[in-house]
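re: ur question from earlier - yeah i can do the single chain one, its not a big deal. heres the input i used so u can compare w yours
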Amino acid sequence: MNKHAIGVRAEQIFAELSDKNLSPQRVQQLSAELDQLETASRNYGKALNLAGAADPYPNGDPGGAAGWGLPKLKTFGAPNAPRVAPQSPLQLDAQQTHALWQAARNKTPYRVEIGSKGLEHGGFMGDVRMKTPLAESGLNNQLPAIQIPGQRGNYGLPYEPFRVMSALPTVAMTGPGAAYLQHTGNTHEASGVAEGATKPSLGPVVTETFIKPQKIAGTIEATLEILQDHEEFAAFLPTELARSMYNQESLYLLQAGLEGGPSGAAFTGLLATSGILTREVGSDTPLDALNKAFVDLRTGTVFCEPDLVIVHPETLGALRREKDSMGRYILAADRGPGEIDQSGEEERIWGVRTVQTTQMPAGQALVMSIQQGAAVGWIRMGMMVEFNPYGGTVDGTELWSTNTYSWRADTRISLSVPRPAANNLVTGLPTD
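and the output i got, formated as tokens:
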């Protein structure tokens, strides 16, 4: 069986497999035959590679390459590396045939687009370009639209770049919910006792808390024309969807259950959690108030060291501009006079890592001891992004009839606060 016959028979098998009424026995027979055809095609390719060490037709191929009726093969890349040409510019090549074969075996939808001269798949004429004469009056719209290289990021909408979940320890939620214990105090403490006397029992106060995952989801659509004419923009769309998802995730982690925040959430955000400490700036300077919030954690009911501060960018900017009596930036004291990075995403205040996010209310700072149980993120389902080319309805628009394609993203997360007092919310901080 020659190469052309292999391709013809493969197309016949694909056509027959499209019949949904085939018996399982017939499907198995066709799949086995496809295996044989693939092996034959692969062996043919290996034979061509072996024969490609020399040109058997230096004066031209009178009967087609290797007697298969194919045009003489053009080599690309490495010397003497032949490529198999399709019988026709509109015929499937080996790569496309293999992809269709795999789709048929897996019973999954697949689409092959056959373009002119095999240019779309980098085949035997992969370095050939069509040349269209220019009209005497000018370009006459013959050139494609220009896409500015490296400008893909500018297509996106502005989203908060910091993901709060990235700052928390995370745990996989292996069931529909999770339970954790909160140790909020002891009824008694250890004390000195006389010989033979009863020892006091601490009587730990422990509360079992159940949490459920919150689903966060979204879709993003693009028309056939966008996918064809603006490939870089279309490739950026799933990234845009993910950025929106992370933005909402951070909002839930901080403000779920808070007035003005997400309502009806499956868990309570950090700022709305009962039992966290609070401190008002009052008559203190902003940096003094933050330092006292650190001390609150160290001397309070948790006795922990702060290791993270979350603030709004306006608040962090105001803290960075704090000056001493001589007009020197206080936070820049360890970097040299006036050497302060006003654009950096992170800061170290009193030696503690400080991050900024617009999902934190301006004028507030959340001082946390992550290592001592301030918060734990739960992942029931990591973000799953799927592409759907087969229709559906979005906002009342039927996608199939409008040549519109869709990406869908889903994630399920939750939050637990094992030790609420390992969090201290500082309010009254400056924003300008």
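DSSP finds seven helices and 14 strands in the chain. not sure if urs matches, ping me
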